[in-house]
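Reagents: none. Just compute today. Core-binding (CB) domain-containing protein.
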Amino acid sequence: MTTINEAFRMFLNEQEGNLKPDTFLDLEDVILLYEEFLEFSAEDSFSEEDRELYNTRHENENRSYCDIFGPEHLTPSGIKEFLDDYVVEVGGGKKFIGTAAKVIEKFFEWAQEKGYIDEKALEVNSEVLRKYKKRY
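Predicted 3D structure written out:
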């Protein structure tokens, strides 16, 4: 299984060679901010099974959320929380919210292409992100 951290690193490595330096830095900033958000907030939405796995691996192996779970654990509600609350809280303006939505959608397209998430997850997540891209 590929973890969220591994998927983020592979995505960033592939994108770095394809983008202009400034564009890549924006993309990297969004991914790092999203990763930070996940580490702070993921426990709020755990199922009982996920909580047990997280507690065991976190305590015994000192693993973080993004080092335990895969991209299939990234949810539309988490995306909304990230864009509506967290990005605004850290001082991201409207333009940055739009940029973040585009980057996350690009990540999900990449993750589906690599087989890390299924087509349905891509559709659901893209539907949420489309609203942000239109709004900002």
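Residues 4-135 form one domain.
Action item: order primers for follow-up constructs.
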